[in-house]
Amino acid sequence: MDFSIITPSYNYGHYIGECLQSVAEQQGVTFEHLVMDAGSRDDTAEVVARFPHASFFQEPDKGMSDGINKGFRRAKGKWVMWLNADDRLKPGALQAVKEFADTHPEADVIYGCWNFMNAEGDFIRRMTLFPFDRRILIQYGCYIGSTACFYHWETTIGQGHLLDTDFGFCMDGEYYARLASLGKRFTYCPQVMADFRLHGESISQQGLGKDDMKNVLRTQRLAAEPRAIRRIYGIKLFKDEHLNNIVDALLFHAFRLKKGMLKVIFK
Questions:
Q1: Which residues, 6+ apart, have CB-to-CB distance to 178 below 8 Å?
Q2: Residues 96, 189 contacting (CB under 8 angstroms)
Q3: 103-121 pLDDT, tens per residue?
Q4: Which domains occur in the chain, in start order?
Q5: CA torsion angle for 68, 71, 76, 77 (degrees, to 10)?
Q6: Is the pTM value of this prediction over 0.85?
Q7: Minimal CB count within 10 Å: which of 111, 114, 115, 226?
Q8: What is the number of other CB atoms lying within 10 angstroms of the CB of residue 27?
């Protein structure tokens, strides 16, 4: 089997039909689509039942990362990805990745471009990238879209490398940083692979701008996870954390500038 598509799901019945349809329409490859549902109380199960290509697994989990890991453990495809329940694959995306992978046998991770769309599914802007830069990933932040990223099962998941379930927001950035630190090879495929939906219900957007304690704490954790990634995988020059934080701030802006330059070069 060429691909395993993992879709974590919880009460996204109003979006998941588009996700399932985008996978069902993929041609030229063999694939499985595993929907890992945490116990949705909406019509998710009924929507998934309309798509015979999909396998539906419903059981409680400890959060999104845990749900994705459950799918990773079940995956049988040569290449594995997770596609959020509110996102969509582009037509021909899987065939394009397969053809690219066949000519890049050294790749452990293949990532590409994606489009941002709004809640209604309308185009907002395109995200194009550049060849992999580990320091930008760690010191600036995760710039690879999980919805346009594929893992070679044999050299990543098959070796026991799963998401860190302690991460609730930047689990993808930590995963990429860890794989890169282990020497896994990231290869850029300049192909638009998916649509990523921006809306107020997504885990990265919920509560933004609200000034109550719950959402302030949530925002602080969202900021803390990238800092933890930098501390574990990044540059640490001093024992004093305050000095390291100053260095982090300087490096953040330096690699932000480098990222901007690379995007212009490889546009």
A1: 161, 164, 233
A2: yes
A3: 999 999 999 999 999 999 9
A4: 3-265 (3.90.550.10)
A5: -40
A6: yes
A7: 115
A8: 8
Report the alpha-carbon distance of residue 6 to residue 1 in Å, rounded: 14
Structure tokens at 108: 């452990």
In the block, residue with structure tokens 């489009």: 115
pLDDT band, very low/low/confident/very high, at 218 (cuts 50, 70, 90): confident
The pairing of strands 79-82 and 54-58 is unpaired
Mean pLDDT of 41-65: 96
Q: Which residues contact 201 (CB under 8 A, 6 or more apart)?
A: 12, 86
